[in-house]
């Protein structure tokens, strides 16, 4: 069966409708993948940073480690309480996802404080 003259160009029109939708889905998948990779970097940076602080390393070294592993825009906050060290690292999401005002990716890690007495005060 041969297509009628009125059907001519219908495939082109269908592709013209479908292609922008497929591009949006692909872009969304790529952005979700980039955000997932950034979250993994934050988790790894938080774990490494909390281990450093639990061992008694300086805050400056901890900030350097966090920014080296999670990116220069990473913000570090840490606290100590009753034998535990806690670290939270926050960073804006990658690419156009950072345009959403106030959206932050963050990771938190905890570790037992290995210096009940700080090294400077130890005998």
List the helices and strands and how they pair.
Layout: H1 10-54, H2 59-70, E1 75-81, E2 84-91, E3 105-112
Antiparallel strand pairs: 1-2, 2-3
Helix pairs in contact: 1-2
End-to-end C-alpha gap = 95 Å
How many structural domains does the protein architecture include?
A: 1
Helix content: 40-55%
Number of helices: 2
Q: What can be said about the biggest beta sheet?
A: 3 strands, antiparallel
By secondary-structure content and strand pairing, the structural class works out as alpha+beta
| SSE order | HHEEE
How many beta-strand runs? Answer: 3
Shape: rod-shaped
> How much β-strand is present in the residues?
15-25%
Rg calculated over all Cα atoms = 25 Å
Task: Give an overview in words.
The chain is of the alpha+beta class and 123 residues long. The protein has one domain. Helix content is 46%, strand content 19%. It contains 2 helices and 3 strands. Strands 1-2-3 form a 3-stranded antiparallel sheet, with helices on one face. Strand 1 and strand 2 (84-91) form a beta hairpin. Helix 1 packs antiparallel against helix 2.
Short summary of the structure?
By secondary structure, the chain is α+β, with helices and mostly antiparallel strands. Helix content is 46%, strand content 19%.
Record keyword descriptors for this entry.
123 residues, alpha+beta, three-stranded antiparallel sheet, 3 strands, 46% helix, rod-shaped
């Amino acid at each position: 069966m041969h297509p009628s003259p009125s059907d001519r160009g219908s495939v082109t029109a269908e592709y013209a409708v479908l292609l922008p939708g497929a591009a949006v889905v692909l872009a969304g998948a790529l952005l979700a993948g980039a955000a997932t990779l950034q979250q993994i970097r934050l988790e790894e940076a938080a774990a490494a940073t909390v281990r450093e602080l639990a061992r008694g390393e300086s805050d400056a070294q901890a900030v350097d480690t966090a920014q080296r592993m999670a990116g220069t825009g990473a913000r570090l906050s840490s606290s100590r309480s009753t034998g535990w060290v806690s670290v939270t690292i926050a960073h804006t999401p990658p690419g156009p996802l950072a345009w959403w005002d106030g959206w932050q990716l963050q990771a938190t890690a905890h570790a037992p404080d290995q210096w009940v007495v700080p090294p400077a005060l130890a005998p």
